[in-house]
Amino acid sequence: MDINSDMGEGFGPWEMGNDADLLNHITSTNIACGWHAGDPARMRWLVEQAIQKNVLIGAHPGLPDLAGFGRREMAISEDDAYNYVLYQAGALQGFTHAAGSQLHHVKPHGALYNQAAKDMKLARGIARAVKALGKEVILYGLAGSCLVDAANELQVPVWQEVFADRRYTKEGFLVPRAQADAIIEDGSIALQQVLQMAKKGQVTTIDNNIIEIQADTLCIHGDNPHAVEFAQKIQAALALA
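Request: output the structure for the sequence above.
Response:
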């Protein structure tokens, strides 16, 4: 299973946090493109580091919301979604080409990701943008969501994404962060969820239902202070399983 992580999500004074170490334990990176976080220096540095460590390079575009870290919903159109994603991912694609590599995937961030998971028009705008970036570029979207449906409709390659540290609703969506128990804090419980998804294609929801889920790529959030240790444990557990 591919293991991905959101990276470069700082802004202002130079600070990379866990990113350098985390690159040793993942197989693909989602690099913030400046709208919810990130800046050109971080983008370039992470592209070059990912190439050195043979990590697949992806763009992590968000809504234009630095103050809210891209987690506040906005009323945008399908064309807005297309423009926002193409603009941001295109910038990262420029850095990958300059470094002699290529863009592997696009994974929307935060509210853009969650809104498009339930809104086919937004999902279609995102999928159109990914298609415009090149036929080899993959869309990472929430498993079983509108992002997957839109990618399939437009014949865009898609990897269905699951999360180690997030609770799921019975409909297969992520429990909103503001809700109690939305985040899994206990590493052993998160690891159990990962193995359940990877081995059985299932996940236990927040209300103790078991639903089917396709797990092509697993997200580990890079801004978690224990992200490196967690990634190591997950990498080892998946290898054993």
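The chain is about 40% helix and 15% strand.
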